[in-house]
Amino acid sequence: YSNIDWKLVFKLYCISCAKNTIIKIIRSCIEKELFRNDYNGYLLEILGDFDDDKTLEILFEEAFKASPLISRRIQAIKGLIKRNVNAALYAAKDLIIKYESRDYDIIDKAAKLIVNYGGDQAIKILIDCALQCKFDSTRWVIARALRLVNDKSILSIELKNLLKSKEKKIRKIACTLLRWQYPGFLEEHLKKLVNNEIYDDVRQEAMKALRNQEEQAWTLELIELFKRENKRRLEILINIIEWTDPFILTTKEDPLWLGHILEDVPYYFIYFANKYIKKRKDEVEKYFRNLDLRNS
Q1: b/e sequence 192-208, b meaning 16+ C-beta within 10 Å
Q2: Any residues with CB less than 8 A from the CB of 10 and at least 6 apart, and which?
Q3: What is the pTM of this model?
Q4: Does the pLDDT value for residue 238 go beyond 60?
Q5: Among 171, 193, 195, 196, which residue carries the largest CB count within 10 Å?
Q6: Residue range 144-173: average pLDDT?
Q7: Which of 10, 283, 296, 289 is nearest to 137 (CA)?
Q8: Higher model confidence: residue 4 or residue 40?
Q9: Are 242 and 223 in contact (CB under 8 A)?
Q10: Helices vs strands, H then E, count in the chain
Q11: Distance (Å, rounded) from C-alpha 263 to C-alpha 147?
Q12: Among residues 244, 266, 265, which one has the least CA distance to residue 255?
């Protein structure tokens, strides 16, 4: 078992002609208890397609297990979501709150799982995570995921309610989440908060939200300019990457995904963008770490 390349098995499993054979082999191994409770992450994703109580029990246990291998836990949640959506959403929420600041990539995956499978619940679940978590860096990851929800009207109502809260902390968290929304999103409410808020830190956060949204509008203008220009494209690309959150630029589901403008350009632009975005991501994550240390 320890020598099995589970990533390869998972790829083979995704080929329809091999799926049934792999299911039979895995079912036999589970019945004979060959795995000894050491379940590989890719194996856990495959177990999501089984229909028996034993594999469901395994997925429940692994999705909620307190383990240093949180990447395996997210794969267990991916498996569980095929069998019990509500339990998987609760597990993803639990992971975000308990493991915040440990691994931003895993937190991002958990938040996007909630968006993709949570339906009408997704917004409330993620906002609840934002209210419960300790670090702003985690709220930034949640805010990016909230950009991807389909029903902006529900998101608008929920964030308006937070902005009207009597609690200063909640109003500030609402502003933090609004920093990653699209240009003009609840702009008038943010301006009202800037003018009327009695607490300086909340007012500052509202100003940051307005500035971040304005910077996104500039990014959209730069993207359109990149499409039209030929001679200044590299300069424009540099400005886009410098101005914009690098995690948004690399999210395929996001309107600001950089891939939209790099499909028909010379390879040098793609190579340069990947290298520069990696540098920007490292800078942002370093900033996250320092921010979390100051607030811990």
Answers
A1: ebbeebeeeebbebbbe
A2: 42, 45, 46
A3: 0.89
A4: yes
A5: 193
A6: 96
A7: 289
A8: 40
A9: no
A10: 16, 0
A11: 23
A12: 244
DSSP string, 220-263: HHHHHHHHH-STTHHHHHHHHHHHS-HHHHT-TTSTT-GGGTST
Q: Which two tokens stand for residue 232?
A: 């200044």
Q: Which two tokens stand for residue 107?
A: 């937190």
Please classify residue 81 by burial: count the beta carbons closer than 10 Å to its beta carbon, then call 0-12 exposed, 13-18 middle and 19+ buried.
buried
d(CA 45, CA 139) in angstroms, rounded, equals 27
SS3 readout for 135-147: CHHHHHHHHHHHC
Amino acid (one-letter) located at 175: C
- Cα–Cα distance measured from residue 106 to residue 67, given in angstroms and rounded to the nearest whole number: 13
Alpha-carbon torsion (129, 131, 135, 138), positive or negative: positive
Amino acid symbol at 244: T
Q: How many CB atoms lie within 10 A of CB 79?
A: 26
Question: What does the DSSP 8-state code read for residue 198?
Answer: S
Q: Is 159 left (phi over 0), alpha (psi -120 to 50) or beta?
A: alpha
Q: Which two tokens stand for residue 141?
A: 């990851």
pLDDT digits (tens, 9 = 90+) for 268-288: 999 999 999 999 999 998 888
CA 145 to chain centre: 5
pLDDT digits (tens, 9 = 90+) for 59-116: 999 999 877 678 889 999 999 999 999 999 999 999 999 888 678 888 999 999 999 9
Q: How far apart are the first and last CA of the chain?
A: 41
DSSP code of residue 99: S
- The answer to whether the beta carbons of residues 145 and 108 sit under 8 Å apart is yes
DSSP state string for 48-59 = TT--SHHHHHHH
